Amino acid sequence: MSKAWKRFGAPLLATVAAMTPLLWSVDAAAQAKPFDGVTLRVGTFGGPWRDDLVKYVQPKMEALGMKVEFVIGSPQDNLAKIIAARGREAPFDVVEILDAQIDQMADAGMLAPIDYAGIPNANQIEPWQRGANAVGNWTTQEVICYDKGKFAELGIAVPTTYKDLANDKLSGRVMYADITGGGGLANFAGIVYASGGDTTNVKPGLDTLKTFKGVKFWKAGGDIVSAFKAGDIYAAVAHTGWCLRAAKFAAANVATSHPKINAGKTGVLKVGWLGVVKGSKNPAAAMAFINAYLDEEFQVAFAKNSGVWPVNKKAMQRLRTEDPVFAAMNMLDAADVERMLRVDYKGVNVNNWYDQWNRAVSR
Amino acid sequence: MSSRFSAMAGPAPARWDYLLVPSFAVSFILLAASQLTFLKGSLYADLGLGSLAANASAGNYATLLTDEFYLNALLLTLKVSALATIFTLLMGFPVAYVIARMRSRWAMLLLAGVVVSSFVTIVIKVYGIIVIFSADGGFNKLMMALGLLDQPYTIIGNQTGVVIGLMQFTLGFGVLLLYSVVRTIPVSLEEAAMVHGAGRARVFWRVILPLSLPGIIVGALMIFNMCMGAFTSASLLGGGRVFTLPVLIQRAVIIETKYGMGAALAAVLLVAVIVINLVSVYLVKRLSAARLVIA
Amino acid sequence: MNPNNAPLAPPASRVARWRRPSVGAIAKYAWVTWAYLFLLAPMVVVLGSSLDGTTAYSGVVFPPQELTLKWYRQIPASHYNALGLSLVLGLSVAIGACLLGIPAALGVVRGKLPGKSMFLAFFRAPMQIPAVVTGVAFLKLYYAFGDATGLYLNATFAGLYLGHLFVATPYVIGTVVSVLQRFNLRLEEAAMSMGASRWSTFRRVTLPTIMPGVHAGALYAFMVSFSDVPIAMFLTAPGFLTYPVELFFGIETDFNPSVLASASLVILFSLGLLLLVQRVIGLDTVVHSRS
User: Fold this and answer.
1) Following DSSP, what letter does each residue of C31-82 receive, concatenated?
2) CB within 8 A of B266, min separation 6: which ones?
3) Per residue in C146-158, pLDDT tens?
4) Looking at beta carbons, which residues of chain C come within 8 Å of A225?
5) Does residue A89 sit at the C interface (CB-CB below 8 Å)?
6) Do residue A226 and residue C249 have CB atoms under 8 angstroms apart?
7) A144: which strand partners?
8) b/e for B228-265, b at 16 or more Cβ within 10 A?
């Protein structure tokens, strides 16, 4: 017995023992994640926006084996980064862009076509948001966010349009969106149209802006939150999300007012898109990221935390009831959303807007 | 012994010259190549999205030199740089003088404080400035408590903030420079003057200041150059409203990707700085010559 | 100094100080205090507010109301990467500036070429070009070079290194020149007359004597590179940022209290560096070798 054991048993046992790690790894290989070793770089907004993405989307991506790195900047900044990278690899794979840039970028061949096979969640969004070169991922309603308490204290009526912010009592207490920031182009268009101008004639908007005494400018939305917290400002022009955050993190007593643009339009709608940069080495991972962004649970959570309006239809439904603060700040009725100003940026010379802005605001 | 000496001293000097060559070559290539390509690049119009026109033209310069906005930007840059230089000198010279004449160990400690300040990058100091001057920050709280202000005063978005930022940028460096200038003036000169009955004020105005003047002017020039080339303070404290040339350059190149216009703006800035430097050097030479004549 | 050997009267300033503080003395020290407050307050504020636990989001609180180190634990990885890059870059630039600057200084001071002041002015030129212009110039140079050869140096270590080397070398040249100008050539002559070779003389007499100048120049070169914003701004790109540029973009678009913690670490590092400098070369050497 012992002889047989020595001849066969022990070596057999040793072999089995040696093979066990191999068996483990075979099992592990079966569980290998689809995007192992991939680092996806995403160009997005900073501050609390990025933090929300880290909290809700990054874990999902990591479960798929991919690492996500965020490159922070406004869409205008990110477009400039892609341009600056000529001859070399683009600085990110996925980029958050606005309606204002998307046509320019598509025409210049900067975006890769979207592979909807990799984005099953896309059938939960509106058809017009399923573009050939970009996928809609959120919309925002640009409003006047004002401090109810201070306005009442100073005896100022609730602002209904931009011109109401030219009040002397608000001197140095108004914050407007800097044109180079994420909220810049939409809100600039808003004040331009509300003052009787249009995309080719922006001067009326600039004239109105100049009447806001001591106006300050925000480039990153976080500036608004800290300004409300420090008591620096009583009103800011930005999207409802920043108003929501000011209420939450700055304990500000704020409410929103959708500005009247003209007879047919009230409020400003800004549409966000996700694009994949041409030449990206990880298109499949990029599609998976976009898919996660459109996921109902994420859209609800993201909307509640950042105040953006989701594109996922089921999420939209849920928010009406699940978050009363959010519901109060936004216009939920489809008819109201239809009446918001949405600029068609095709053929618009945005660089000319920057130029005229610089001249008007310089001190 | 002496003949062996001179024989050794003979070929030596010529060989020192060869050491120059590699450094000179590297510096020259970098200087020439960078300046030439950028000046050349300024002669192309921007077509948007970072692309440049195919043919060279002086269009960018025509715009710069005729458009009031850009001319104002140049004047604004000169103004804030000049103000920052003057205030830095006014603040820094007395400090440098006091430290230079200190005999205790405090002198080294004070100098250490200045050196630390110049190690730390301006961005960090600007954070601090923003906090100090914010509506509920130390400055406003103090001023309102003292009754000097009844509304918080903001420095973000106006030229005052930019000048303060530039001073933060250059003060440390200025103090170090002026310190070494004052150290070159022997204390015995001051003592001699005082022994002859001059009060401290007269000593300062008639002895120290005139002797330091060439050094001060050189220092002023270096500080001025630093201010002309800095955009950090103006960007962060200017609140998107104070457009000095460096800010415009940074915006043009980094944000608007208008590479042609950015280069043209940089060229204008460079020319302005060179002209001012040459004029000042000439003035210093005149001053030194005058001094020699008197002495 | 005193031909008559009579005892010198103590300097008037010292006498005045010990008797009673004059108005002038008070004004003098008040001015110094005020200047130091101005100089150091921002850094103190950054240090202090990094310890505050009450800022929920953007909104810096000073003096800190609730002491905590949590922001230090939340410093993003990108800051550490950027810090590492800046440190490595700074050290390399300091070394490169010395390798270029020492021979240049020796050549200018000791050579017999005419137009020494012209050479000195040429070597100092990079210090006079506004930093932002240097940044743009190198950016365009790299694009032109890349378009012609296919090798783009933008956002590469080599590209950043060249840009910083360009502006840092003048500092080394300046400090070494000023030390060399005070150098007593007889020391070298003495060594050689004792039979030492040229290289041996250089290594054992010249080099140690000019070392203070070299140290000071290297320190300035490191400082210039480590704290530079205008040049690095144009020669970096997302994923390859130096620390000051990372902070700059952070304050513009991505503010978070952990940025304060990060900045505080750098302030403490600078203090540490200062102590090291004082130990190894002594502050007065650094300060006195400005030409």
Assistant:
1) HHHHHHHHHHHHHHHHHHHTTB----SS---SS-SSB--HHHHT--HHHHHH
2) B38, B42, B249, C130, C132, C133, C136, C137
3) 988 988 898 899 9
4) 57-59
5) no
6) no
7) A237, A257
8) bbbbbbbbbbbbbbbbbbbbbbbbbbbbbbbbbbbbbb
- The three-class DSSP label of residue A306 is helix
Q: What is the pLDDT of residues C11-39, one digit of tens each?
A: 555 554 555 667 777 888 888 898 999 99
Give pTM, 2 decimals. 0.86
Of C152, C238, C254, the CB nearest to A220: C254
Q: How far apart are CA C130 and CA C165, in angstroms?
A: 15
Task: Give ipTM to 2 decimals.
Answer: 0.85
A355 contacts B73 by C-beta, under 8 angstroms: no
Q: What is d(CA A306, CA A48) in angstroms, rounded to the nearest whole number?
A: 8
Between A255-269, A292-306, B103-117, the lowest mean confidence (pLDDT) is in B103-117
Q: Where in chain B is the domain with CATH 1.10.3720.10?
A: 80-242
Beta-carbon count within 10 A of C81 CB: 15
**CA–CA dist C21, C28 (Å, integer):** 10
Chain C residues closer than 8 Å to A226 by CB: 57-60, 255
- Alpha-carbon distance of B154 to B238, in angstroms, equals 11
In angstroms, the CA B128 to CA B125 distance is 5
Q: Which of A77, A217, A231 sits opposite B240 (nearest CB)?
A: A217
Length of chain C: 291
* 8 A C-beta contact, residue A213 and residue A297: no
Output the six-digit token pair for B64: 């710069």
What is the CATH superfamily name and number for domain B80-242? MetI-like (1.10.3720.10)
Q: Which domains does chain C have, with CATH numbers?
A: 11-70 (no CATH), 72-288 (1.10.3720.10)
- Asked whether the CA dihedral B140, B141, B147, B152 is positive or negative, the reply is positive
**For residue B291, what is the enclosing H or E element?**
helix B259-294
